[in-house]
Specification:
Blueprint: H1 3-13, E1 18-22, E2 28-34, H2 43-52, E3 65-71
Parallel strand pairs: 2-3
Antiparallel strand pairs: 1-2
Amino acid sequence: MHADAIQQLIETGLSPCQVTVEGEDGVHFKAIVTAASFAGKTRIQQQQMVYATLGNRIHDGTIHALSVSTRIPS
């Protein structure tokens, strides 16, 4: 899986949002996600929202590791 594909999945699932995904080896990625929908949610809930956009790709090994940093726009 490519970083662009992960970015598109997150953008589609959390629209509107801003997403940056980096990953060099095709299985380990880092995502920075900024979304107004995170307001009032705990960090864990915010990360769960991001993971939900990826479906089973984390559990089936398509994405081996994803580090998620969430932000609320100012």
